[in-house]
Amino acid sequence: MTKNKPRKKIKKPNPSAKALASGRYRQRRVESRKVYRRPKQKRVALKETESDG
Question: Is the entire prediction scored with pTM above 0.90?
Fold first, then answer.
């Protein structure tokens, strides 16, 4: 069995105006950063409240 190789991140030094206008390029980076910052406990608590509501 072959190991799953991590995907190579493609860094775009100059995103197109179209991508910036749609907000996709910046949004993606901010979202991923948020996930890393949030502690696990907090996440579980949020999930619980969601299921209750």
Answer: no
